[in-house]
Amino acid sequence: MKKLFTTLLSVLLVFVAGAQEHIANDTATAQTGLRADGKIYVVVAVIVTILLGLYIYVIRLDRKISRLEKNA
C-alpha cells in the first residue's frame, strides 16, 4: 500500500511541476475560461474531495477484507 501511495504521489508531483512551468510561460496571455472567473479553484476542490473520499473508502475496504481473511 505504501508503494502505491508513493507512486501516486510521485506522479502527482511530476504533473504539478509540469503545470507550473506551463503557467509560467503562459502569463503573458489573457486568462480565459475558469481561470479568469476564479472558478478553477472550486473545480480543483471538488476533484480533490472526490479522490480523497475514494482513497479513504478503498483503505477502509481493504482493512475490512483483511480482517475477514484473517478470521476465516
What is the fold's blueprint, element by element?
Blueprint: H1 2-25, H2 34-37, H3 40-71
Low-confidence stretches: none
Question: What is the element string, with H for helices and E for strands?
Answer: HHH
Helix content: over 70%
Give the overall shape: elongated
Total number of domains: 2
How would you summarize what this structure contains?
With 72 residues, the chain is mostly helical. It has three helices and no strands.
List keywords for this structure.
3 helices, 72 residues, mainly alpha, 2 domains
Could you please describe the fold and organization of this structure?
This protein has about 70 residues and is mainly α. It folds into two domains: about 1-30; about 30-70. The protein has three helices and no strands. The protein has helices at about 1-25, 35, 40-70. The model has no long low-confidence stretch (mean pLDDT about 80).
